[in-house]
Write a structure and sequence with these properties.
The chain is of the alpha/beta class. The chain contains 14 helices and 19 strands. The chain has an eight-stranded mixed β-sheet with strand order 12-11-8-13-16-17-18-19, sandwiched between helices. A five-stranded parallel β-sheet has the order 2-1-3-4-5, with helices on both faces. Strands 6-7 form a two-stranded antiparallel ribbon. Strand 16, helix 13 and strand 17 form a beta-alpha-beta unit. The longest helix is centred in the C-terminal third of the chain and has 18 residues. It is elongated. It starts with 8 loop residues before the first strand and ends in a 15-residue tail after the last helix. The structure holds ligand PMT. Ligand PMT binds next to helix 10, helix 12 and strand 16. The site of ligand PMT has 29 residues, from helix 10, helix 12 and strand 16.
């Protein structure tokens, strides 16, 4: 079973509930984070998800039977328990939680959970009444007291039609929580990171504005990943509908000018700026206090004025160790991004082709190339959170390569 020193090894325990079908997606998210996965199914889980599908996405054959002589000869269950850096159980049914809480080891998964010393992450999924039952409450409390980390459950509509707590937390959130706990190296500890995200709005009158399709998702994912890597993060966000990542300071702005002021006020003393925002290049030359009437013919002679370039201003004046721009391109992506890298005097630029369906603006996934002085890094299509986590690793390496600032020269004592 190949494994290098940096990738994390995860036993993914899958219980027999309807949410087991989401384990395929969970494996994909964990693999984007470069984890190596061995799925372990309970007997009932195999009714909801096939070993063939799991093997295809995980790249390792799933295990399910304590008495499988061939599998045991390859890596015995005790060896497998020692191999794991983490055990993630998703979905964890009420029955599985009860067995785990009571130390019952009557199949491969529960035996592995007793034998391992790796941290255990448990994502419950069950009917609301089962979740709220005093027996389940006791079992969950006991598992927590034994050191397991509970992820969820989430609230919402369930497969059985009831509403309330009991839904399995989304696979992307499980993957991120596990990554934060076991893999996120504190590569940005002690650094101060600024991130801009989302669009800006340039108002013509109280009801009309110029803007673009940025949702803020890529920038928010970067802020989240930088915070998980130990940085002190400030996120300067244009108008978007996204929750603030935990532990991140958020400053909301609307126009490019507001974003410029918010960034410049915080850039000195920062270590890295990620300029992910899609800043409007132009604004209406004049703002009208009252709504313009349709028949006023302003539309045919709308004058625009160029907005100042925020990231170029930071690169020119703020002396940050690292300024990382983004480039949204629809053609000649690399050549255009390289021009922006040079024209704005950036240390690196991350380019995405926003003409490709399913990536770029307002999608869950992205595919990017990061260009910098010492080369380029290509990240194929994957969730924006995974892109962000991988970019953080790249940027931390670039930061580490920067020469240390010259020591301050002590003042020469005046001769008396
Ligand atoms: O928000 P999402 O829906 O998740 O989509 C993500 C994204 C596509 C917006 C993001 O990945 C991205 O590409 N962001 C940059 C978009 C952009 O405006 O590119 P640009 O080529 O126009 O600008 C180049 C760089 O200059 C960017 O870092 C931009 O923030 C910066 N800029 C641009 C104009 C300006 N007046 N000031 C700036 O600082």
């Amino acid at each position: 079973m190949p494994s290098d020193n940096t990738s994390k090894r995860i036993l993914l325990g899958i219980g027999g509930g309807i949410a087991a079908y989401k384990s395929i997606e969970l494996v994909r998210h964990l693999r984007f984070l470069e984890a190596e996965i061995v799925p372990v199914l309970t007997r009932n889980a195999a009714r909801f998800v096939t070993a063939t599908a799991l093997q295809a996405v995980a790249g390792n054959p799933p295990r399910s039977d304590l008495w499988d002589a061939a599998a045991e000869a390859g890596m015995g269950h005790i060896e497998l328990a020692r191999w794991a850096d983490a055990v993630v159980i998703a979905p964890a049914t009420a029955n599985l939680i009860a067995r785990l809480a009571n130390g019952i080891a009557d199949d491969l998964l529960t035996t592995l959970c007793l034998a391992t010393q790796a941290p255990r992450f448990i994502a419950p999924a069950m009917n609301t009444k089962m979740w709220e039952h005093p027996a389940t409450r006791r079992n969950v409390a006991r598992l927590s007291a034994d050191g397991a980390t509970l992820l969820g459950p989430a609230d919402g509509e369930q497969a059985c039609g009831e509403f309330g707590p009991g839904r399995m937390v989304e696979p992307a959130d499980i993957a991120t929580a596990v990554w934060r706990a076991i893999a996120a190296p504190a590569v940005l500890a002690g650094t101060k990171v600024l991130v801009t995200a989302g669009p800006t709005r340039e108002f013509l009158d109280p009801v009309r504005f110029i803007s673009n399709r940025s949702s803020g998702r890529q920038g928010f994912a970067l802020a989240e990943a930088a915070q998980a890597a130990g940085a002190d993060v400030t996120l300067i966000a244009g108008p978007v509908q996204l929750p603030t990542p935990a532990g991140v300071e958020r400053v909301d702005v609307v126009s490019a000018e507001e974003m410029r002021q918010a960034v410049l006020a915080r850039a000195r003393g920062a270590d890295v700026l990620f300029a992910v925002a899609a800043v409007a290049d132009y604004r209406p030359a004049q703002f009208h206090e009252r709504k313009l009437k349709k028949d006023e013919s302003w539309a045919t002679r709308l004058a625009l004025r160029e907005n100042p370039d925020i990231v170029a201003a930071v690169a020119a004046t703020c002396e940050l160790p690292l300024v990382v721009g983004f480039a949204a391109e629809t053609h000649d992506a690399l050549a255009n991004a390289r021009k922006k890298l040079n024209a704005k005097n950036l240390d690196a630029i991350v380019v995405n082709d926003v003409a490709v369906p399913g990536i770029g603006f307002d999608s869950a996934d992205n595919a990017v190339t990061m260009l910098h002085a010492s080369g380029e890094t290509v990240l194929p299509k994957m969730p924006k959170r995974a892109i962000a986590q991988r970019l953080i690793t790249e940027v931390a390496a670039l930061l580490a390569q920067r020469p240390a600032p010259a020591p301050a020269v002590p003042p020469v004592a005046a001769k008396g």
